Task: structure prediction
Amino acid sequence: MKKYLTVPLTFGIVIALAIAASLAGAQKQPPDKLVFKTKMGNVTFNHAAHIKRANNDCKTCHDKLFQQDAKAPLGFKAGMHKPAEAKKTSCGACHHAGGPSFTTKGNCKKCHVK
Ligand code: HEC
Ligand code: HEC
Ligand code: HEC
Result:
């Protein structure tokens, strides 16, 4: 008799947890790394390392610089990155001359790997 009860009960708990997780899931899991494919060679964005350097503050980048969606356009590639660097948007918000990280000029290979 007990057997017939525990199975649906466990099943019910699993479902309830799944629903709770999906409701809380407005906050998606941050990816470790993201790879952007380009004609210049793939760019690996170390998301975890960038989060650490931003002192775990997601708002440094989301959503003012990037959507929380790996398929959304980055808006960085136009004009060999010069417009984004000048306007300090996208990756250019930090990767520009005099910024907190290396500028694109002369550093193509720090990001693009063939
Ligand atoms: C230094 C900038 C930066 C910081 C800080 C940052 N992210 Fe991101 N995140 C990105 C970029 C860039 C993308 C990809 C956006 C795109 O492709 O348009 C991304 C994408 C994501 C995605 C989508 C993944 C997917 O597969 O679609 C999630 C979820 C995410 N971030 C969560 C977080 C969380 C949570 C934090 C804070 C703990 C955080 N991010 C902090 C830059 C950042
Ligand atoms: C909030 C500031 C910030 C943003 C936005 C940002 N970076 Fe960085 N990035 C840094 C810092 C700081 C470093 C480490 C310091 C250095 O090496 O100059 C770094 C380092 C890197 C490195 C070297 C490997 C590593 O992670 O240590 C790569 C590659 C890189 N960034 C790519 C990108 C790309 C691609 C984007 C846009 C999708 C981006 N970054 C956006 C701040 C940023
Ligand atoms: C901070 C990292 C970083 C550096 C440094 C960098 N790039 Fe990029 N590059 C990217 C990312 C990320 C993309 C994809 C951007 C997008 O989709 O908007 C990209 C895209 C491009 C594209 C578009 C390719 C395509 O498939 O459409 C060209 C061209 C390009 N980069 C040239 C360069 C050149 C030339 C340099 C050196 C002067 C350079 N990049 C330095 C990160 C970087």
Q: What stands out?
A: The first strand starts at residue 33 and ends at 36.
